[in-house]
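lol ok so funny story. i was supposed to be doing the assay writeup but got distracted and ended up predicting the structure for this chain instead. priorities right. anyway since i did it might as well share w the group, maybe its usefull for someone
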Amino acid sequence: MNYLADVRALARKDLLLELRARDTLPSMLLFVVAVFVVFHFALPAGSSDRAASGLLWVAIVFTALLGLGRAFVPEREQRVLDALVLAPCDRSAIWLAKSIATFAFLGAAEVVALPVFALFFHGLSWSTVAGVALADVGICTVGTFVGATAVVTRARELLLPLLFLPLAIPLVIGGVGASVVDAPGRYLAFLGLYDVLFALLCWAAFEYVVVE
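and the output, tada:
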């Protein structure tokens, strides 16, 4: 119960900071909508659904990267990351709370962005929505872990995408597959398996990352 209370308090802190500052969510929302508008006019008429689905997942990954790049900015600017590490709580609670907050920001951006995509690119299937939800879990858990690794380096703006994008390739493959095939079950199962495996790995390894 103490662990869940710590996670809730840390996640609440991040959500309240975003509500007050309005830094992360507006930038993510404007970016993803702008990308869809550009893709709408850049793609030739009659482009395939497969091409449109690929562009959707590219936009989601880079929008998430924008949010992940700012995930640890408040702690870095206020120099409180060391205090969080030294706090009398399980250090994995920091990772889980950050993942939850990032998931909330990304989900809020997608609530607006997905209808825009459906308007521009011939609708939206239930399997695409399910794939986005599952991929968001993987993006936020892995991305938060990588963000914590990169935030302590001088080249954090360069290191974060270099570490995160290769790990996001399976999510893009699973998401595109779930969006374009008639029987998306195996791709959705693949995304779910990715989420479980990498969430466990990040949860177990986060303590060693922040200590080092």
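The CA atoms of residues 47 and 56 lie 13 Å apart. The first helix runs from residue 2 to 21.
back to the writeup now i swear
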